[in-house]
Each structure stands twice: as structure tokens, then as C-alpha cells.
Amino acid sequence: MGRPMQFEKGAAVDKAMDLFWRQGYAGTTPRELAGEMGIGKGSLYNTFESKHALFLRALGRYSERRLEYLTDLFSAPGPIGPRLKSAIAVLAGVGEHRRGCVMVNAAAELGAADAEVNRIADDLFTRIEAVFRQAIVRGQESGEFGVQRVADAAAGQLLASVIGLSVLVKAGGPSEQFTAVLDDIVDAL
Predict the structure, then answer these.
(1) Which of 141, 150, 17, 161 is nearest to 85 (CA)?
(2) What are the structural domains, with CATH classification, of the chain?
(3) In 3D, which of 57, 55, 49 has the Cα closest to residue 19?
(4) Which single residue of 19, 144, 148, 171 has CA 20 to 30 Å from 57?
(5) What Cα–Cα distance (Å) separates residue 163 from each residue in 130, 156, 157?
(6) What is the spatial distance between Cα 105 and Cα 101, in angstroms, rounded to a whole number?
(7) Which of 65, 42, 74 has its CA nearest to residue 155?
(8) What does pTM read for this prediction?
(9) Mean pLDDT, 10 residues at a time, the chain of 189 residues
């Protein structure tokens, strides 16, 4: 009979996600993961099967958290514009950190070579775009945004802005520049 698990899986996945976010997939070793998670390498493999399986699980957890954030943000009444600015800033990491978006980073690093990473990233991006589309429609219905722009196209542009800003944040540009870009993106609606 094996020893009982001495750690909480969710917390361990969160720690792994943070390490992958800081170092990327290729730059993170199983030894570093085990150390960050506070477990032995054997426990890492027994619980998560492989570094890759743990990475996929971390990306899934990241997706869940981002979608929960967006759902909470846009479920409240009130003006949509400020919430869209906030959503774009948080998703891209503007003012928060210099790591960009973990999903954008993962897609850039592995997306072309890893169908599962590509699937997870595409699913998250599609769902974010749908949230943006609904928010834009609400803003158009309330008169906050003009109706001349098609919500589908505008939502796609917002998603592309998140992805582009995420890369710029990771590259280390000035935060003030990103804030001005956020204002321009949403004001164009």
C-alpha cells in the first residue's frame, strides 16, 4: 500500500502554473517543478504522470480562473467600457506583472508543435471573444457604444489587442503606453 498524498493537488497545480508562467515550458525542469510544489519528483510523476500532463492541467486551471474573472466582471450592472478596459489589462498583464498572458506564452512557445496546447489556447481565446462580444452588444444596447461596428468584428479586435498587448508586456514596454492603448481600444467602440 502506497503512502497517502501529503499535498493538495489544486495548490500544487497553481504553483506549477506560476513557475511555467515565469520560465516557460521548455525552461522548467521536473526538479524545479517538484521543488516549487513542495513535493518529491516521484510524487510529481505519480500524481500528474508527466511534466507535459501537469502543464496541460495548469493551462486548464488558468483558463478556468480567467473565465471566472470575466464572468464575475461582466455579470454586474453598470457601464461596460471601464470593465472592458479592466478585462483587457488583466488578461494582458498590464500594470500587474511583466509576464504577459500564460496562454499566449504557451501558444507562442508550443502551439504549432503541440496540438493539445493549441486546443486549450484556442478554446480559451474563443470563449474570451464570446464574452467580449456579449459585452459589446450590451454596450450597444445601452447606447454606451455606437452600433456602426459589428460586435463580432469588434470582439475579435479586442481579443487580438489582448494577445498583442500581452506580448508587449512580456517584452517590457512602458506601462503608461499600454494604458493609453487600452483607452484608445475601448474608446473606439
Answers:
(1) 161
(2) 59-187 (1.10.357.10)
(3) 55
(4) 171
(5) 15, 11, 10
(6) 6
(7) 74
(8) 0.89
(9) 59 91 93 88 86 95 96 93 94 83 94 92 97 96 91 95 91 80 87
